[in-house]
Write a structure and sequence with these properties.
Distance between the termini: 28 Å
Order of helices and strands: HEHEEEEH
Largest sheet: 5 strands, antiparallel
Strand content: 25-35%
Structural class: alpha+beta
């Protein structure tokens, strides 16, 4: 396994396991959360301004960790849209219940070990 993928996958797996150990509530994300999620995912894209988001949903654990999954379509290096890709991130909340930080957003793409899909399934955000 590629070392870079392993360094990202291991902490994500640990977070997912701890989040799944508690009950989860599925809900829509707030406008503030959505803006932060979209900004974080856009940083992972070749053409961030072309990003089109859909099916963005959240699952909140008892500990307050928010798992966010959705789909993004953006232009590739040839200028065409590459098709909807699943994305995943966590949002940590602070004591004032405001979004504090985005944790390791991932976008599943061809040729990569899919990270978003199993994490979104575990959070019950995929059908």
């Amino acid at each position: 396994m590629n070392l870079k993928i392993a360094l990202v996958a291991l902490p994500l797996a640990a977070l997912a396991i701890s989040a799944s150990a508690s009950a989860q509530e599925i809900r829509d994300i707030t406008p503030e959360e959505r803006a932060k999620v979209e900004a974080a995912v856009r940083k992972k894209l070749l053409d961030p301004d072309s990003a089109q988001f859909q099916d963005v949903r959240a699952s909140v654990s008892d500990s307050g960790l928010i798992t966010v999954c959705g789909k993004v379509n953006a232009k590739n290096q040839y200028g065409g849209y590459s098709g909807r890709k699943l994305f995943h991130t966590f949002i940590a909340k602070d004591d004032n219940d405001s979004s504090r930080e985005m944790i390791a957003p991932t976008v599943d793409d061809e040729g990569m070990v899919p990270l978003a899909e199993p994490l979104c399934r575990q959070a019950k955000l995929l059908d």
